[in-house]
Design a protein that fits this description.
- There is one protein chain.
- Among the domains are: 214 residues, ATPase, nucleotide binding domain (Nucleotidyltransferase, domain 5), CATH 3.30.420.40; 80 residues, Actin, Chain A, domain 4 (Alpha-Beta Complex), CATH 3.90.640.
- 35% of the residues lie in helices and 25% in strands.
- It contains 12 helices and 21 strands.
- The strands form 5 sheets. Strands 1, 2, 3, 4, 11 and 12 form a 6-stranded mixed sheet that branches.
- The longest helix has 27 residues.
- It is globular, with a radius of gyration of 25 Å.
């Protein structure tokens, strides 16, 4: 018996030594254990998932289909039950406009009567749920939850809630995480706009729960943006302005920060102003140049988009983006077998979009006026959202707050909120 116990001790010691050796090798290779929680920004236009490793580093998990960091928050529901999420769904907006849902975040947790004006701006049908005794949408039930009545070519129809749309986007991101890491993660920190009420926040949480995620914490988006820059770790009281302009909405939030205590003092914004509005203005500028005969012709045959309104709209976004880093950019479209080359300068675009830039600055003044404060009170300004990359917008903000105030742009503004959500994890 003593021999067996001694032998067992040798086996245990040998096993422990083997485990210790493996652990040492893994540690030398940088392995710090399995991360267990992700931070997700379920956005109106794009969604992002961030991961904090046990060594404190944060990374963005790429989409498992495209490899991109940003996942379009777009979902196509097909008649055969197939569901397409992300870039594939974006391609379906022209082919299946009535059952490709985008901007679902605008409707989540809201009643039909609250979104009646918004509903008319989309190709899909926004309505309350089907009535209990009929398969027709109860369009007159303005007190009912807003959703999407999808009619398929085979004559069937289905009501889809914004919660369900959000859940499909989250499921897609969860698959990306599991394929990237090689194991499942089910716990998440999520973010919601500061202007969301109880109903919208609860509905957003339900989207994650339907996707099999357990919500560990809910952050307001401006708080997550400030946390991404560790502004909550500074000493004393700080006032932080978070300027968030994405594809379709603008939110400006004023935060009070005193150590780890963070509160949103005031929120102002424009629910119908974002990057897409500047794209539309660029398209109009391109159209006017064509009408005035300012395009030069070329036989190169490199133009992929037509010179009609839809083709120019696609080119408009690309030109706007290039102007963020260049003083001028070209748009090449084709018509009658000939390429037409349009040159746009940054100055031309900024002049044509002067009214939009003016609207973009109005919420900054309002959020300060609400607290009877001036720009001098602000310690930090954090920029969030892809449209915040426009040089003119940054110039206007810098002029407003003065040359000594720093505009925080070190983190990619498209991923700042998700980065902040992951940052709060220990």
């Amino acid at each position: 018996m003593q021999y067996l116990l001694a032998l067992g001790g040798v086996v245990v010691v040998a096993g422990c030594m083997r485990i210790s050796l493996v652990s040492s090798i893994l540690a030398a290779l940088g392995f710090r254990g399995r991360p267990q929680v992700v931070g997700i920004d379920l956005g109106t236009t794009f969604s992002v998932v961030a991961l904090k490793a046990t060594d404190g580093t944060i990374s963005i998990i790429p989409d498992h289909v495209t490899g991109k960091q940003l996942l379009p928050s777009v979902v196509t529901f097909m008649a055969d039950g197939k569901i397409i999420v992300g870039d594939g769904a974006v391609e379906n907006r022209g082919r299946y406009p009535q059952h490709t849902i985008f901007n679902a975040k605008r409707f989540i947790g809201r009643r039909l009567g609250e979104v009646s004006l918004e509903a008319g701006t989309h190709a899909y049908h926004v309505s309350a749920n089907f009535t209990k005794d009929s398969r027709s949408p109860s369009a007159t039930d303005l007190s009912g939850p807003a959703g999407f009545a999808v009619a398929f070519a085979d004559g069937t129809e289905r009501w889809i809630s914004p919660v369900e749309v959000g859940a499909e986007v989250v499921r897609h991101m969860r698959r990306s995480v599991s394929r990237h890491l090689g194991f499942e993660i089910s716990r998440v920190v999520i973010c919601v706009p500061a202007k969301f009420g109880v109903a919208e926040t609860k509905a957003t949480q339900e989207s994650f729960e339907r996707a099999g995620m357990k919500v560990m914490r809910i952050l307001e988006e401006p708080t997550a943006a400030a946390v991404a820059y560790n502004l909550h770790q500074g000493e004393g009281v700080r006032h932080v302005l978070v300027y968030d302009i994405g594809g379709g909405t603008l939110d400006t939030s004023l935060l009070y920060m005193n150590g780890n205590a963070v509160s949103v003092l005031s929120v102002a914004g424009d629910d119908h102003l974002g990057g897409s509005d500047f794209d539309t203005q660029m398209r109009r500028l391109l159209e006017s140049k064509l009408e005035r005969g300012e395009a030069r012709t070329s036989a190169a045959g490199v133009g992929k988009e037509s010179c009609d309104s839809s083709g120019l709209h696609i080119l408009a976004e690309a030109v706007k983006i290039r102007l963020s880093n260049n003083s001028q950019a070209e748009a090449i479209c084709h018509s009658d077998g000939i390429d037409r080359v349009l040159v746009v300068t940054r100055a031309e675009f900024e002049e044509s979009a002067a009214e939009l830039f003016g609207r973009a600055m109005a919420p900054v003044q309002k959020v300060l006026d609400d607290q009877m404060m001036t720009a001098d009170y602000i310690d930090d300004v954090v920029l969030v959202g892809g449209a915040s990359r426009m040089p003119k917008l940054r110039e206007l903000l810098q002029e407003f707050f003065g040359p000594t105030k720093r505009l925080h742009t070190e983190i990619d503004p498209d991923i700042t909120v998700a980065w902040g959500a992951a940052s709060v994890l220990d």
